[in-house]
């Protein structure tokens, strides 16, 4: 508790110091050599933040810098652009507009085909079960989740129960009934998860897609900074565990369930 309080106070001090430097530079405040040193330190801080890769912070200093940049970005994209009255009106308008939209008007098109049949129902039931599992993992204590899903401690291959900044809570479960390894990633559940979501600056997300041991596609694009950092952190921890499990059970699939989405990685 004491360490968390100290870290919060230190982060607030850094943020206030950074804002003061910005205002001093904007107003042309000249404090001699001391003022020049402060401006130089401000510029170096900007460069460090700008050049810092999209990855989870490894130290308290990196965490403080990330929080500072997150708050700066959030302010610049909200109150830095619009008055609070306009923001409140816009949020209320969008909520009302989305509430009146029909699902078909958003996702459907003229060339959509209605899917019918027992196989479709079975597939949807499987997806519903996976989403329900992820919901219980996100909302319930871990022992309650295991009991609800019918798993035991032996089925848990990896478990990270506490979320950090850009480090979501997740677990890997071996589901013997469906012959799947389930990577369940918890949704927003704490202030650290909220800060991860708020770190919304655009960062490069260039990566290659591997298929049969070779590169099949090169993807060039940009993505949400917090999501990229969280995905890289999870992949770094989960990949060795999954590769070891797949070597023992090569006929198993890997499915990733992220709060409300299901991805099948290996067929």
Automatic annotation (TrEMBL):
Q: Which UniProt keywords apply?
A: Hydrolase
Q: What is the protein name stated in its UniProt record?
A: Mono-/di-acylglycerol lipase N-terminal domain-containing protein
Q: Locate the Mono-/di-acylglycerol lipase N-terminal domain: which residues?
A: 49-114
What's the domain of life for this entry? Eukaryota
Ranges where the Fungal lipase-type domain occurs: 183-256
Q: Molecular function terms in GO for this entry?
A: hydrolase activity
Q: Name one GO biological process term.
A: lipid catabolic process
Q: Does the keyword Hydrolase apply?
A: yes
Q: What InterPro entries does this protein's entry cite? A: AB_hydrolase_fold, Fungal_lipase-type, Mono/diacylglycerol_lipase_N
């Amino acid at each position: 508790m004491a360490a968390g309080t100290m870290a919060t106070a230190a982060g607030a001090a850094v943020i206030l110091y950074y804002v003061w430097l910005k205002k001093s530079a904007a107003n042309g405040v000249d404090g001699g050599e001391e003022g020049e040193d402060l401006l130089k330190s401000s510029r170096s801080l900007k460069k460090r933040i700008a050049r810092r890769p999209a990855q989870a912070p490894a130290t308290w200093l990196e965490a403080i810098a990330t929080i500072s940049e997150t708050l700066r970005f959030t302010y610049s994209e909200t109150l830095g652009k619009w008055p609070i009255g306009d923001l409140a009106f816009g949020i209320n308008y969008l909520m009302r507009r989305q509430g009146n939209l029909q699902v078909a008007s958003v996702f459907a098109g003229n060339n959509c085909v209605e899917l019918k049949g027992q196989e479709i129902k079975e597939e949807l039931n499987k997806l519903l079960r996976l989403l329900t599992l992820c919901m219980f993992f996100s909302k319930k204590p871990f022992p309650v989740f295991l009991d609800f899903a019918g798993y035991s401690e032996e089925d848990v291959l990896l478990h990270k129960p506490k979320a950090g900044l850009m480090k979501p809570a997740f677990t890997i479960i071996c589901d013997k009934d469906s012959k799947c390894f389930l990577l369940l990633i918890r949704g927003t559940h704490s202030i650290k998860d909220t800060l991860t979501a708020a770190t919304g600056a655009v960062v490069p997300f260039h990566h290659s897609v591997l298929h049969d041991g070779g590169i099949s596609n090169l993807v060039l694009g940009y993505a949400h900074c917090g999501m990229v950092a969280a995905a890289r952190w999870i992949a770094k921890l989960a990949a060795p565990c999954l590769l070891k499990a797949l070597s023992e059970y090569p006929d198993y699939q890997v499915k990733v369930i992220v709060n409300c989405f299901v991805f099948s990685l290996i067929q």
